[in-house]
C-alpha cells in the first residue's frame, strides 16, 4: 500500500471527539468516506444523530456517543463503550475544544478553568483512559492544537494557555507512549471557518480561513501515514500565510 494511502483507513476504529459540528463533523464524514468505523463524541445528541444519518451511504460507519468530556466518569465510561462498540480502538482524535475569549479583568477564574478543562484536561483524561486499548492495537493519538499554542492574541489568554499546555503535554506523552507502540501527533491548524468564531468578540473574515474539510483532510493523512514515520506536529495554515 503506498505511504499516506487513505486505504489504510478502511476498517480503522477511530474515537473522534467534538464531532457534532465544525472540524470534527467534517472529519467524521471524511474518515467514514475512507471506510473507517468512527465513534463520534460530543454533548449534542441530536447533532450526532443527524451526523450518523448523513454518514449512512458511506463505506464506513459513524456511531454517535453523547457525553461531557470534562467529566472523568463519563470519559472512563466512554473508553469502555468504545472498546465494546468498535471491538477495539486504533485511533483517538482529541478534537473537542472551546474557549472563553475575554480581556484579562473580564476573564473570570471559572472561565479560565473551563477552557483548560475541555482543551487540556479532557485530552489528558482521554489519553489516560484509552492508552491500554491503543497499546493493544498499536494505535495513534492525534491532538488538535491551534496556532494559539505558539502565538499570542489579546483576549485569548485562557485558550492560548490551554493549547500551549496541550502541546507540552503531547511532547511528554509522545515519548512516554512510543515504547508502548502508540504514536502521538499534534495537528495545529490556523484560523478555520467554523462556528467557534461566533463566540469570539470582533469581526472576522471567515472567507479567508481554512475550510474545516481541509483540516479533516490533514487528519486523514496523519491517520493513514505509514507506521515507519512519525509526524510530530503538522501545521496547517491558509495559503496567504496569515494565521
Ligand atoms: N476554528 C478554528 O479557527 C480553529 C483553529 C485551530 C484549532 N481549532 C481547534 O479545533 C478543534 C475543533 O474546533 P472547531 O472550530 O471545529 O469548533 P466548534 O465548531 O465550536 O466545535 C467544537 C466541538 O467540541 C465539542 N465540545 C465542546 N465542549 C465539549 C464537552 N465538554 N464535551 C464534549 N464535547 C465538547 C462540541 O460539541 P458539543 O457542544 O455538542 O458538546 C463541538 O463538537 C478545537 O480543539 C479547536 O480548539 C479550531
Explain this structure:
This protein has 243 residues and is of the alpha/beta class. It has a single domain (6-226), classed as NAD(P)-binding Rossmann-like Domain (Rossmann fold, 3-Layer(aba) Sandwich). It has helices spanning 22-33, 45-54, 72-86, 109-137, 157-177, 212-224, and strands at residues 13-17, 37-42, 61-66, 91-94, 140-144, 183-189, 233-236. The chain has a 7-stranded parallel β-sheet, with helices on both faces. Helix 2 (45-54) links the parallel strand 2 (37-42) and strand 3. The N and C termini lie far apart (35 Å). The mean pLDDT is 96. NADP nicotinamide-adenine-dinucleotide phosphate is lined by residues 17-24, 42-44, 47, 68-70, 95-98, 118, 144, 146, 189, 191-192, 194-196.
Amino acid at each position: 500500500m503506498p505511504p499516506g494511502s487513505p486505504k489504510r483507513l478502511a476498517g480503522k476504529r477511530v474515537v473522534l471527539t467534538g464531532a457534532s459540528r465544525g472540524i470534527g463533523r467534517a472529519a467524521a464524514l471524511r474518515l467514514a468516506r475512507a471506510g473507517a468505523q468512527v465513534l463520534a463524541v460530543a454533548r449534542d445528541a441530536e447533532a450526532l444523530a443527524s451526523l450518523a444519518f448523513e454518514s449512512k451511504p458511506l463505506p464506513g460507519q459513524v456511531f454517535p456517543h453523547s457525553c461531557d468530556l470534562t467529566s472523568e466518569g463519563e470519559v472512563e465510561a466512554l473508553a469502555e463503550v468504545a472498546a465494546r462498540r468498535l471491538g477495539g480502538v486504533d485511533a483517538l482524535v482529541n478534537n473537542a475544544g472551546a474557549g472563553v475569549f475575554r480581556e484579562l479583568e473580564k476573564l473570570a477564574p471559572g472561565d479560565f478553568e473551563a477552557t483548560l478543562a475541555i482543551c487540556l484536561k479532557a485530552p489528558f483524561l482521554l489519553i489516560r483512559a484509552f492508552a491500554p486499548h491503543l497499546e493493544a492495537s498499536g494505535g495513534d493519538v492525534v491532538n488538535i492544537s491551534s496556532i494559539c499554542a505558539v502565538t499570542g492574541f489579546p483576549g485569548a489568554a485562557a485558550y492560548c494557555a490551554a493549547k500551549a499546555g496541550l502541546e507540552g503535554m503531547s511532547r511528554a506523552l509522545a515519548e512516554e507512549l512510543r515504547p508502548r507502540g502508540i504514536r502521538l501527533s499534534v495537528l495545529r491548524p490556523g484560523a478555520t471557518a467554523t462556528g467557534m468564531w461566533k463566540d469570539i468578540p470582533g469581526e472576522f473574515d471567515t472567507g479567508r480561513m481554512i475550510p474545516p474539510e481541509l483540516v479533516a483532510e490533514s487528519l486523514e493523512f496523519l491517520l493513514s501515514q505509514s507506521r515507519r514515520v512519525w509526524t510530530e506536529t503538522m501545521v496547517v495554515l491558509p495559503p496567504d500565510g496569515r494565521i
